Amino acid sequence: MANRFDLAGRIALVTGASSGLGKHFAGILSDAGAKVVLAARRTDRLEALAADIAAKGGEALAVSMDVTKADTIQAALDATIERFGAPADVIVNNSGLSREGWVTSMEEDDFDLVMDTNTKGVWLVARAFAGALVKSGKPGSMINIASVAGKRVGYTMAAYCASKAACEHMTRAMAIEMARYGVRVNAIAPGYFETEINDSFLASDEGQQMRKRIPMRRFGEHEELSGPLLLLASDAGSFMTGSTVVVDGGHMWSSL
Hints:
The protein has 256 residues and is an alpha/beta fold. The protein has eight helices and seven strands. It has a single domain, classed as NAD(P)-binding Rossmann-like Domain (Rossmann fold). Helices cover 43% and strands 15% of the residues. Strands 3-2-1-4-5-6-7 form a seven-stranded parallel sheet, sandwiched between helices. Helix 4 packs parallel to helix 5. The termini are far apart.
C-alpha cells in the first residue's frame, strides 16, 4: 500500500515554497520521490531549501515567481520544462496572504492584493501549469490550498474569507473541466497552523482563547498535513477530484 503514495518520476511545483506550509510541502513531496520546483518571490530562501533537498538526495529547482504576474509564472513553467523535460504533474497552489480590516475601513489596495494572490493567482498558475499538462496529454494532480476561513467567517477577515471561498469553489469548477484529461483538482482546507501569516495572532491572548474553542484544544502541526497532501498528489487518491479535505482538529464543527 505504501507504493500508492510513491511519487518517484513525478515533478512537483510548490508555490509559496520559501516558508511555512509551502516549505514543508516541498520537503514532503521530495521525500516521496518527486523532483520539486520551488517557486516564490524570495529566491534566496528557495536556493537554501533547494540545497537542503539536494543534501538529502533529492532534486529541486528554485524559480522566481509572483503568482499575481503571469509572465513570471510562464517563465517558471519554461524553466521547469528546460530542467526536467516536462511540465510539473503535481501542482500545489500554496501562495497566499492576508490583510485584516473591517469592511467599512479596509483599503481597496489591500482587498485587491488578497484577491489577486489567493484567488486570481490560483487561476493564473492553473492556466499555465495545468494548461501545459492538458496540452501534453500527461495526467496529473493539482492541489489548491484553501482554508476553513473559506467555510466560516471571522471579524476583520472579509477579504481573506472571500478569497478562500472562491478558491475552493474554483477548485470544483476546474475539476470538472480537467477530469476528461486525467488532471485531478482538489483542495486542502487547513485550520490553524502556525505560519508567518498568523504566528503573532496565535501567540496573543485572543489567539489562545480561540485555541480553546478548537475541539482538539490545540493548533495543527505541519506534519499533520503531510498525509492529506500525499493522498491527493499520488495514485492513492486516483478517484478523487473536486474534493476538499478539511484538516482543522474539528474546528469547523465547534459549538456555537
